[in-house]
Amino acid sequence: MPAEPEPDPPPAAEYRVADLELFPAGDGLSLVYSRDTGAAAFYRPETVELLSSLTDFRTLDDHLRHSLPEGMPAGAAHRDLLQLSRAGFLVRRDQPPAGADIPEPAPISTVGLPTRDRLQSLRRAVTSYAENCLAHGREVRFVVTDDSPEPGGAQRCRAMLADLAGRLGIAVSHAGRAERARFAAELAEAGGIPAEVARYACLGETPDEPADGAPAAETGPAETTVGANRNSLLLHTVGERLFSADDDTVCQLAAAPGQDGRVRLSTGGDPLDTWFYPDRATAFAALEPINQDLLGLHEQFLGRPPAAVLVAAAGAAEASAAGTAEASAGGSAWADRLPPPLLRRLRTRPGRILLTGNGTVGDCGWDNPHFALFSRGESFGRLTSSAAEYRRARASRELAQAVRQPTITEWPQPRLAMCIGLDNTGLLAPFPPTGRGEEVAFGAI
Fold first, then answer.
1. I want to staple 21 with a disulfide (CB 3.0 to 4.6 A). Which of 33, 247, 265, 322 is the partner?
2. In whole angstroms, what is the distance from residue 158 CA to residue 126 CA?
3. Angle subtended by helix axes 340-348 and 306-322, to nearest 10
4. 407 confidence band (pLDDT: 50, 70, 90)
5. Which residues neighbour 405 within 8 Å (Cβ) at sequence distance 6 or greater?
6. Which residue intervals of 193-338 are DSSP H helices?
């Protein structure tokens, strides 16, 4: 019995070209391969031209009206479109993304702060983050990993944190170098790894350095071990989502200039905008304070599949435009402007958002004033709006750096770790244990 023909697609279904590779095959033919479905077939030049023109999601009838190659009969184009849609060379707009049904991840359970001999700024930082958590009904633990080289410094830090814990009613843990040395030894024994590897990861010590938990005397920037301090925090919180903040930050939330709540997807490059200020008072005065749950803002994205976030955001936007009371979880507008390779990846590989970062305002931490010359777009326009503005920007490290819209990107570098969320439910890659710029290398990984 002959096979029944495949049914025609629904008239309202919208299609566009899949993620394709084209190979010349001789005699005017091209071998067309779909990365989305694995389909492969030989096509004539006019069919390849038709296929390559289908860059927007439209119904097949609309494609006939807008994309018909010159000289190609409409009947032949209609037959080609039907065959291309059935063979896997077109993708449908309403195809569900991978990971949309993954359960909601657990809340952020830990706020971690790496520190070294900065008691006053650490006290201010812990207090500010604790007050934000308490104001929004959150119960989290605070973990301070302390790189203070002298035992007395670690003891003073532990006493200060104990006082804060009692005064604020929060749970605080402290790990100095001695505690982290014991931690590294236990990790080495439990994991069957060389002790010197664990010590280097958690303490930044090489085999010729002291083995009593105290670092060797510093000889220059190469002896900076903040990366090892961050690694101790990561290894301590495996299986959790956490928020990590530098000890010289303060949790005071403000809206970015021109803030837009719609989620966007960036396919590369640094998504941050930069605003330049002559001093900190001017920077703070330029931003509008807001009262929001900091950890809740990170939880909207951290640990979730990118496509699920985009679908939810698109559904909310569609519901808002239609005046409905509830957002639809099936919004498909998120797929409209994505290049075919990225759309394929989001639809076929669930993945998770492993790192989230909020904007910052204040001292940018850059020692070289020339970094601003790498700004792009509106940021570069603000920097170079006049010779006087450029001189003012170069003379000050006071900046606001933020995205105007919540932005998902596959390339977060440069990503400073001043205030970041980390999905550590699966063991993350380590920070380089020694040297400066460890967070930039971590972001590149």
1. 33
2. 13
3. 100
4. confident
5. 259, 260, 261, 262, 263, 264
6. 195-203, 226-236, 280-285, 294-299, 306-322
